[in-house]
Structure formats: structure tokens, C-alpha cells
Amino acid sequence: MRKLNYIKNLKEYLYAEFFERNRHLLGFDSPRKALLVAVKEYVDNSLDACEEYRILPDIKVGIDKLEEVTYKVTVEDNGPGIPYESVPEIFGSFLFGSKFHRFISTRGKQGIGASAVTLYSITYSKRTSRNYYKNEK
Fold first, then answer.
1. How remote is the C-alpha of 4 from its chain's centroid?
2. Whole-prediction pTM
């Protein structure tokens, strides 16, 4: 009987709602920390991809200030790239990460960094997020 009451009290949250309530758990406590997390997560992804494909990484990071607390972060690398058809799944889900298919974590912990950065960017800057890929159609 107690288990049934527990199940009745469960609530389904949208990603954005969950993120708003728990963004501090992912490192988005302040705009300054969010910028640091954004750069770190994308560079970690670049390093992970290059490491997996045994490519010596060549990573370029750009940070442009657009407004008082709004920045454009650009990370370019020489990694294998993301297949165009996988972009929505990778950046639109918290259940997808660069580490999940290998079941190991070489850098970050959750493997949800790019998704979290994208959601934070859209939620707080009120702008769209644009991800470019060298193998884009």
C-alpha cells in the first residue's frame, strides 16, 4: 500500500523545469560559473573525441561578450565530428553523452554537459543556440 502512494505522488518534469530547479547541481550557480562550465564541457567533449580516435587535439576556443552577462562561446576542434542526423539527439537530451557508449568517464562526470550548456544558453539568454559541424549537410 505504501509503495502505491509513492507512485501516485511521482511527478514528471520537463527538462527545462528540472534544470531550473537544479541548475546549481550542474555548476550553473552564476553567469560566471556558467561561462566556465560551458567552455570546460565543450573542450572536454573535444578532448574525449580526439582521445577515442587517437587524434592529437587541435582546439580553438573563442569567447565574445555580446551583452552584460551574455557571451558567445565558440569551440573548434579537429576531432571526428558528430553525424548531422545525431545532432538533435545529442543536444536535445540529457540522457546522451560522449561517455555513455564506452561506460567510462575520462573527464567530466555526468556526460550531459553539451545538453546542459545548450539548455542554459537558451533559457537565460533568450536566444537560440546554434551548433556548427564540419560534416553538416
1. 35
2. 0.73
